[in-house]
Amino acid sequence: MMKNGIKKSILTSCLLMTMFSTHTWASNDSLVEMTDNELSSIQGQALLSLGFTAPNESNPLQNFGYYKLGLEAKMELNANIRALQLGCGGRNGPDGCDIDIENVSLSGPPDGKLADGTPTWSKGRANTSAVITNPFIEFAIKNPNSASTREIAGFRLSAEEILGYLTAGTRNDIDGNGLSTGGGINTFSGFIKVGETPVNAFTDPTIFGTSDDQSISADVCVRTLFCNNRTATSNINKMTSGHPSYEAPPSNANIFTYNGQRIWGIHVPTQTVSFNFPETIVSGSRMKQLNLVVQDVPIPRIAIGRDSGAINLTLDEAVFTVNTATFFMGANNSQGTYAYCAANYSPGTCSYITDLKANVQVKQNFNLIHNLPISSGGYLALQNTALMWPGVDPNDIAQPGWWLSFKDPLDFGALNPTTGIPMHDVLPQIATFITDYLSNNRITVNELDALGALFGAPLYQGLGDIRLAQDARAVMVLENLLLDGHQKPVSNCFGGLKFC
Question: What's phi and psi for 16, nearest 5 deg?
């Protein structure tokens, strides 16, 4: 029986071969041979296209032959990937990856947004698709003209154009480690050009002048019958609770209160920090954090009034047995209050910190950046050496391993932190700037105020414009701040699922 089955299989195979052979010969008989000139005059479009870019021997990063196989078509794609991990292990170690992104979604771009910037899709995100025009695969061949030494240096998957919306993660939140609990970009290797983006941040309210690194000094003229030149310095020990020299603030309505308790120090309220994030290139391997510096960000004029609080000053030499005073940086009248000083520019009765500029350091975990709108081409590549793929940005040098690149600047919409910027790193710098200013701009205490100080009365005086030097720059750090709805990921699923 088995022999008969084998014979039948052989017979069937021979019949099929005969049929196909007959069909092939018949088809070939119907073809008409064309000359090269006749072929060149024909117009048409192939589904597949082949291309070759010769090596650029003058640039070692482009000294490769690039062979490209493209699909002349438009593709639509809506996809969710639970975990995109590429280049894990090996030289990156057991826990390292070139690219590690959780909860990835690709869809069509949104057609609207909410008041807080959250993107919206009128038909639902899951009903849209990214449009990929002319996708292709390209190989980089080292020594392409030598059969004995040629080798593949890398390949990339790309397209002439991609229009879509890429998100990573499911929640726009932050935990105690500065990470989102809904996943996102854990590790990134590649090239991103971030388009100019408005940033609207704000500082945390704070108390100034009560720590050693915030001490200020000033040249003072205490007028009696003549000018008594002295140096007044912050007495930090008297203002530090728990120190043996500590003295409680006086019972004065202008002393700042916190949680119902009178405290030393000058209250600096929240300040707006708005600037445009310039177009910036972010490129590197296995990056976990966005590290950038924006130079010369102007800080609005900081107003200080008499009810902003007080500091304790001590003279280097007593005047008529008086060597200390409680000092308020505003006039003791209706035009010396913080409300008046902030609403009206009044250097005769108020104090102002003017011309403060900051070099802002941005240290933001990639995990907190969720939305990446795509309006141009990009590619995903793997290479064993640093190289430059044809047609990319001159700064886009793909490094060994997996590499994800976006062609044109990505539009983040806006970066609006929802939490304040701590000022503890900036205040010591401001104290230095104030001391530098007051060393060249002496404070004069008139006879009446000097007499009052003799009997323990506080000093009230607006210092006017404490105008900082043109090259004075504070360093302000924006680190792992929760962003607003512009970075809120929207589900790419039907129903109420966050991810599917």
Answer: -65, -40
Residue type, 401: G
Eight-class DSSP state of 299:
P
- Kindly report the backbone phi and psi dihedral angles of residue 331, in degrees, each rounded to the nearest multiple of 5, phi listed first: -70, 150
The candidate with the shortest Cα–Cα distance to 405, out of 419, 393, 423, is 393
The token pair at 37 is 């000139």
Instruction: Identify the H or E element spanning 114.
Output: none
How far apart, in whole angstroms, are the C-alpha atoms of residue 297 and residue 299? 7
**Torsions phi, psi of 372, nearest 5?**
-130, 90
The tokens of 61 are what? 């990063």
Instruction: Write the pLDDT tens digit of every residue in 143-188.
Output: 999 999 999 999 999 999 999 999 999 999 999 888 999 999 999 9
Residue 254 has pLDDT above 70, yes or no: yes
Q: What tokens appear for 131 in the block?
A: 């449009």
Q: Which residue has the tokens 């807080």?
A: 116
d(CA 287, CA 125): 29
- Output the CA torsion sign for 199, 204, 208, 212: negative
Specify whether the CB–CB gap between 208 and 266 falls below 8 A: yes
Instruction: Enter the tokens of residue 427.
Output: 């205040």
Q: Which two tokens stand for residue 425?
A: 């790193």
State the pTM of this model.
0.73
